[in-house]
Amino acid sequence: MVDTDTVLEFVEVARAEAGRRIVVGVSGYCGAGKSTLARSLAEHTDIVRLRGDDFLDPARSHRRSSDWDGVERVRLADEVLRPFHEGRGGAFRPYDWNLGCLGDPRPLPTAEVIVVDLIGLFHPETVNLLDVRIWMDLDLATAAERGKARDDALGRSHARLWDEVWVPNDRDFAERFRPRDQAHLIVDSR
């Protein structure tokens, strides 16, 4: 079970040591609990969550890829991570799942901590822009089982995507980029 207080303490120490605003990246396999942890952290003062789903291309994220190329890491880096680190204002365009395109610009948060939860986040395009990297540690089979159950409960029929795309993408990404090894904190999400 995830101990949110321990994670929060880790994040607060990292921010104090940095002496500035920080970005926390939460990654792991699909269904590993990334969003659950990020939502929990964002309940605390001065922590804002940016949904990883706002930085997905639905067409590309629904096809096979060894690097999760449906994750729009360059857009995330250019619109959020670099401006936030540089203390600049700005805006980002979340993907609007209802309209099927990028939505209206939203201002960058001004919080002390931004938390981004996203698959394929610990990638060369973004990994060095994350001040704290948290890996949700759960074996791939269990994560997929949980993700499928969640989707079924929400009335989403994604079994084929899980089996033919998302699980193989997660497996290939882990083998290629070793995201668990790049984490500052590994959280047991069983």
TrEMBL record:
Assigned keywords, A-Z: Kinase, Transferase
Pfam families listed in its UniProt record: AAA_18
InterPro entries, sorted: P-loop_NTPase
Annotated GO MF terms: kinase activity
Top-rank taxon: Bacteria
Protein name (Swiss-Prot/TrEMBL): Uridine kinase
Organism for this UniProt entry: Agromyces hippuratus
Native organism taxonomy: Bacteria, Bacillati, Actinomycetota, Actinomycetes, Micrococcales
